[in-house]
Design brief:
single chain; 17 helices; 72% helix; 1% strand
Length: 315
């Protein structure tokens, strides 16, 4: 009897404290409300449409009127002859891009942190951030111009090779060009958060370490990198969780009839099957499969990082 009364009093006190907290901070929740409402409307409500992945969808019958087929579309995709190629192309582009691209913003931020003259630092940052504001369409057009048989790159290589290199049509070059151009475009902008974190490091720590005889590498290793460690963990988890969520536009724009063996990825496949061929149910199933893989990777990578990072992770 005493235990139940104590639990009731505890629950009542907890409820009162929550309402008191909400009454004191209601303005903060009002500021948060538009973001929550927009997220629900544009992110969660459209999830209802994912049900067509389990139906033999017909636009004439609608979502509810279409016949339920369960996991048939998923089985068709997993047993299709091009599943392995599409899945591995997507995985390789994402994993290689993450492995090669993740350290670059950190290196840029550490390098920028060593520039003491503010004017020079701002000019360098402007140059590094500029590619992020170039349209994907423009970037792809630049790639086709630079790597065309008569472009600047082949002109430079002409003195060493017997003929032009088919960079944009040879499947062997697609991944390298896609990943390296992506790193070039995004690395500067991605370094902003690291630069901001390093700006909060107390300069006296570096001064004290210098007086004690610490080298530049030792100061970076023992002062700067520990400061960036929590941010690195969170960004790596988010990057790994989005491994299968590779961008559609750039891959589709760079795709040619000759580099299909390496350029066909899940997003481009979904576009062709869904919008071009009109098989909405099957393409939705493929997209849903892709999303499920992303969620699994996010949970798994977060678990591993928390184990290696003293319990600090995304959640």
């Amino acid at each position: 009897m005493g235990n139940s009364l104590g639990l009731e009093l505890h629950a009542k006190t907890k409820k009162q404290s929550f309402f008191q907290y909400f009454r004191r901070n209601y303005a903060l929740y009002l500021f948060l409300a538009p973001a929550i409402i927009l997220t629900i409307i544009f992110k969660y409500v459209p999830m209802y449409g994912a049900i067509i992945a389990f139906k033999d969808f017909s636009p004439m019958k609608g979502i509810l009127g279409s016949e339920w087929v369960g996991f048939e579309h998923f089985k068709d995709f997993l047993t299709s002859p091009n599943f392995a190629d599409i899945f591995m192309n997507t995985l390789k582009l994402s994993v290689y891009g993450l492995i090669l691209g993740f350290p670059v913003p950190i290196i840029l931020a550490l390098s920028l942190n060593q520039v003491r003259r503010a004017t020079i630092k701002k000019n360098i940052q402007l140059i590094l951030y500029a590619p992020n504001f170039i349209s994907v369409v423009v970037i792809t057009g630049m790639l086709f111009i630079f790597f065309s048989p008569t472009g600047p790159v082949n002109s430079l290589l002409s003195s060493f090779l017997s003929g032009p290199v088919p960079f944009m049509t040879d499947p062997d070059y697609f991944r390298s060009i896609y990943i390296l151009s992506g790193i070039w475009q995004a690395a500067g902008w991605s370094s902003i958060i690291y630069v901001a974190a390093l700006a909060n490091v107390d300069p006296q720590l570096h001064d004290a370490a210098t007086i004690d005889g610490a080298s530049l590498w030792q100061r970076i290793r023992h002062i700067d990198l520990p400061t960036l460690k929590p941010i690195m963990a969170v960004l790596f988890i988010l990057g790994a969780g989005g491994i299968m969520a590779i961008g559609f536009e750039k891959a589709y724009l760079m795709q040619t009839s000759m580099n299909i063996p390496t350029s066909e990825i899940i997003p481009t496949y979904v576009y062709k099957v869904g919008l071009q061929a009109g098989d909405y149910a099957y393409s939705t199933a493929v997209g849903l499969f892709n999303s499920v893989i992303n969620v699994i990777l996010l949970v798994f990578v977060n678990f591993v990082v928390k184990k290696l990072n003293e319990g600090e992770g995304l959640y």
